[in-house]
Amino acid sequence: MTPITEVEGRRLALSNLEKVLHPATGTTKGEVLHYYATIADAILTHLRDRPLSFLRYPDGPEGQLFFTKNPPPGTPDWVEVADVPRSSRETGEQVVVQDLPSLMWAANLVVEFHTPQWRTDRPALADRMVLDLDPGAPATVVECCRVALWLRERLAADGLDAYAKTSGSKGLHLLVPLDPAPSAEVSAYAKSLAVEAEAELGGLVVHRMARALRPGKVFVDHSQNAAAKTTATPYTLRARTEPTVSAPVTWDEVEGCGSPEDLVLRLGDIPGRLDRHGDLLAPLADPAAAGVLP
């Protein structure tokens, strides 16, 4: 029998709680749901008012993975759904997770949470910029940290503050709170930074996606600032054999990173980090922290 749980007055059917989703650690679906319930305040800060895309992995990372923007069949009528632009000619409905019941409903589907850089009330007006630092083997997150520190200083020269989080996979994300600006302008500025980083950091950086260019280098992916693109939401679990999380890190941790394992954050690490640091990405949701695009 599927357990029925009441969350803030909403009845939820939570299924297959004993199913192992992350085989390297034996992490079950029940433990995943407990994680999201525990860190709900933090992740909701970064989900609210943003149309949600799901990467679903209901049978774990070794099963079928599929990406969807449409509200899944059976979406409860109390889960917010927004009509948002999909292109210059069409719109589409997407889920917007605004509260704890909606978060737990979505987590029960077994998903990675992905969101754009804009909110539903301001389509294609980005209030943050993202630079995705993706290492090409044998480069690792250690090299990403070197690039991140350079980019931090470069952004500061333009009056912008940068915040770092792990990708939950191999790399690092830099996030910059912005006074809302057209996504096309943010994309152009992000590309200019990637090109400049490639010129300044010798053989360490590449700004183009071609895989033949990337071995041993850090690809500074600026493309996720396009209005149609999304990025892994802070605090989302990733579809990996271990329950790794895309989670914020301090600049001291970035500066001190000496091996890839230094910046691997797992499900069990996050509640304690929130107790110690609070939400290191809280400024992304604070209009007073937003910088003006040059």
TrEMBL record:
Domain of life, source organism: Bacteria
CDD domains named among the record's database cross-references: MtLigD_Pol_like
Keywords: Ligase
Chain ranges of the DNA ligase D polymerase domain: 28-280
InterPro entries, alphabetized: LigD_pol_dom (IPR014145), MtLigD_Pol-like (IPR033649), NHEJ_LigD (IPR052171)
Pfam family, one: LigD_Prim-Pol
One Gene Ontology molecular-function label: ligase activity
Sections of the chain in a coiled coil: none
NCBIfam families: ligD_pol
Protein name according to UniProt: ATP-dependent DNA ligase
Organism of derivation: Streptomyces tirandamycinicus
Origin organism lineage: Bacteria, Bacillati, Actinomycetota, Actinomycetes, Kitasatosporales
